[in-house]
């Protein structure tokens, strides 16, 4: 069916597809749901259209901006939250700072070609990156801003697993709580082994995939 349609073309109605292929509407409905989860089609308004291919994001020590540009997509970000919070026990351990120390929390919606791809929360030591809360433009690359302070990324540990979005997260991602998501947690260190950031990013499973090169 999709082989004859281009990106943005409307998908025929369930009734039409059922007649065309001689199957029950329930069978068509299940097939369309699988295509939706796979990112082959998407809801627009009250209709369904053919979506563009998933963004394939390389796994590596680079920013989302760098990864999107590397595969020919136009990255963007929408600021949701910029705040200073006290370090919880978990944040203090991850950033190697005292409990209660000031932490900069940045929450942003990640875009690719104006499509909402993910929701990213980043935590950094406010004492280490003094002034970043007031000088950083949240629509730009955070990694570029960090490097501009003289800090160099040395290594990172990432964990990726499946998850479901909360109602708030689903709304920010223009999705639903039933859509499968990819949850990424990352801890980045500088070249001296000192923690730089903790990141929690939730990605729409129908719009992004991750890949890496094994040697």
From TrEMBL:
BP term (GO), one: negative regulation of DNA-templated transcription
Superkingdom, natural source: Bacteria
Transmembrane annotation, as ranges: none
Species the sequence originates in: Mycobacterium dioxanotrophicus
Molecular function GO labels: DNA binding; DNA-binding transcription factor activity
Domain annotation HTH gntR-type: ranges: 1-53
SUPFAM superfamilies found in the cross-reference section: Chorismate lyase-like, Winged helix' DNA-binding domain
Entry protein name: GntR family transcriptional regulator
InterPro entries: Bact_HTH_transcr_reg, Chorismate_lyase_/UTRA_dom_sf, Tscrpt_reg_HTH_GntR, UTRA, WH-like_DNA-bd_sf, WH_DNA-bd_sf
Keyword line: DNA-binding, Transcription, Transcription regulation
Family matches, as Gene3D superfamilies: Chorismate lyase-like, Winged helix-like DNA-binding domain superfamily/Winged helix DNA-binding domain
A Pfam family recorded for this sequence: GntR
């Amino acid at each position: 069916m999709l082989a004859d349609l281009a990106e943005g073309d409307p998908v025929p109605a369930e009734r039409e597809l059922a007649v065309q292929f001689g199957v029950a509407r329930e069978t068509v409905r299940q097939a369309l749901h699988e295509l939706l989860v796979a990112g082959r089609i998407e809801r627009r308004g009250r209709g369904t259209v053919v979506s563009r291919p998933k963004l394939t994001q390389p796994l590596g020590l680079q920013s989302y901006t760098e990864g999107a540009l590397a595969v020919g997509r136009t990255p963007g970000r929408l600021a949701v939250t910029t705040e200073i919070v006290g370090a919880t026990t978990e944040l203090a351990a991850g950033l190697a700072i005292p409990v209660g120390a000031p932490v900069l929390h940045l929450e942003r919606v990640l875009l690719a070609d104006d499509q909402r791809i993910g929701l990213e929360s980043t935590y950094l030591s406010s004492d280490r990156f003094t002034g970043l809360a007031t000088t950083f433009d949240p629509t730009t690359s955070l990694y570029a801003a960090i490097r501009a302070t003289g800090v160099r990324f040395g290594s990172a540990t990432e964990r990726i697993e499946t998850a479901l979005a909360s109602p708030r997260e689903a709304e920010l991602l223009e999705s639903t709580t039933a859509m499968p998501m990819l949850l990424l947690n990352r801890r980045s260190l500088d070249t001296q082994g000192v923690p730089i950031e903790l990141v929690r990013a939730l990605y729409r499973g129908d719009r992004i995939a991750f890949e890496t090169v094994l040697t």
